[in-house]
Amino acid sequence: MIDSELVELRVDTPPIYRPLGYLVHTNRTLSNAARRMIEELEAAR
User: Fold this and answer.
1) Which of 8, 37, 10 is nearest to 22 (CA)?
2) How far, CA to CA in Å, does 32 sit from each of 22, 36, 37, 45?
3) Which residues contact 8 (CB under 8 A, 6 or more apart)?
4) Are 24 and 30 in contact (CB under 8 A)?
5) Distance in angstroms (rounded) separating the CA atoms of residues 11 and 14
6) So what's the pLDDT on residue 1?
7) Maximum Cα–Cα distance for the chain, whole Å?
8) pLDDT tens digits for the chain (45 residues)?
9) What's the pTM value of the predicted model, to 2 decimals?
10) How far, in Å, are 23, 38, 41 from residue 31 at the CA level?
11) Are the beta carbons of 22 and 41 closer than 8 angstroms?
């Protein structure tokens, strides 16, 4: 239920951007899911 005192405030700000990364251990193999995730991250660059 929405309270009658509740209002929507529009904020005119730029979208939030947060750079992310990943680490890979050189002496370990990656799972199929991890490899796929890295492929997706690289494709989104």
Assistant:
1) 37
2) 15, 6, 9, 20
3) none
4) yes
5) 9
6) 56
7) 59
8) 567 888 888 889 888 888 888 899 999 999 999 999 999 989 988
9) 0.54
10) 14, 11, 15
11) yes
DSSP secondary structure letters along 1-45: ---TT--------PPP---------TTSPPPHHHHHHHHHHHHT-
Single-letter amino acid code for the residue at 21? G
Query: Where do we find the tokens 């209002």?
Result: 7
Paired tokens of 27:
């002496």
